[in-house]
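Researcher: Good morning. I'm working through a list of sequences from a screen, and I'd like to move beyond sequence-only analysis. For each chain I'm collecting a predicted structure so we can compare shapes side by side. This is the next one on the list. No need for commentary yet; just the structure.
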Amino acid sequence: ILFTVIVASNGNQVEAVVSTQSTGTSSKINTTYCTEMIVPHCLLLTFCILFTFIVESNGNQVKITVPNAAGAGLYLGEKGQSCFQTCYQQGLNCNPVIQTKNSPLVFSQFKLSCDYVASNWSSSFEPGYNPSSNMCFGYMNVPAAITCSGANPKIQRVCNCQAPVKGTTTLGTGLSNSYVDGTEQWIFSQVLASGDTGVMSHLWVTYPASDDATMVIRYYVDGEKEASIQFDPSLACGVGFSDDYAPWGTKWFGKGAVFGSWFFNFKIPFTTSIVVTAQLPSIHQNGFYMIVRGSTNTPLIVGDVTMPSNARLNLFVVDKIFKPLDWITLADVPSNTQGYYFQITLSVQSRNLNFLEGCFRYYTAGQTFPGTLLSTGAEDYFDSGWYFDAGVYHLPVSGLTHFNQTKEGVSMSAYRFHEMDPVLFNDGLQFVWRNGDVYDASGIKCLSQEGKVVGNPGNSSVQAYTWVYTWN
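Model: Good morning. Structure tokens for this chain:
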């Protein structure tokens, strides 16, 4: 149907009334509306808008209602911002497609009095504006898509931002042959449509360096100013001391190559937005690759546990030296909170293996000592025995990812999942371990706070990541 339409907008919706001859009907249509405009200096501009609109007819008139699309379009970011950042600040999502038609008019809506440089696109932060030189550049021969994560500290980048789309979909991105350094780099962001929920479910990262422990990955959940989930990928994948043994893996995490190549499949739920960043404080490293992926409006299920849509994944971090027989709180969830203790990675360096005598336990709903025992020592909690005498292993539920014993001391790292034996709680949780332990008068461990010390434990340097889902 060819319509000649007069369109009026009240800021919330666009309506057009068109006289026509038709039978009464109502339908939803997706279409693209284009118009051309002559502007000063004899330039012909073509504007195209994708409409999802409702057409209702009573036989004499057709009423077209178009949802408001205000806010979507091109934006000029601040200096040093990626398009993920620029669009996120507007409550929008980055579209990597920027069509310039080799024209500097892509800059015209920003009211810049810049000098146009007819240069070919050559970098991921173009098309861009350099306020120091007052140049607009990089708008010629722009590729089909440009990574949304590209940024330059001196450049304001042109970004294509789109409104969140409601519904069930897969989301994510991949960044190839880039770099990472001391500046926190936005790798991905997503703003959800109202009423939708999201779950991030996959991370893969690699770069050609062996010291993975200095890499920092952050997840900012639902508009956080400080990231509640912040980790180095090796420890998040169950490995301490930058042990580069590969390949190995479980369905939840693993390592596919000697350098980097960590994959991490923990489910990180969010209800309004997510931001994922990477940082390498120690050096500037080229050859950086990263993939993140998730979905919207999918149920949050881990093993046999189905969690509510408002559940959050919490990361509890321990990085401290403890004296012999010290109690170590690995996770502390306040009362009146429900949840699911899911996983732990424990990394320890000590003078001998007697720290492994310590028992794991948890307290909930006002429990007192000894709480609920989860082990009779450390290595049996990780499904091994006799001070890990079988060496390194990688099993679906548990594993020993690093073990080194010399005359100077011992270092180890291990992981344990509670997918098949979930640890659930209804009124807060304290998850506790001890640096060594004692026997009671009958020779039993774990049930006494005082008694004969088992062996001769020393000071232990402990790093631990404990992952707990919580909800109210």
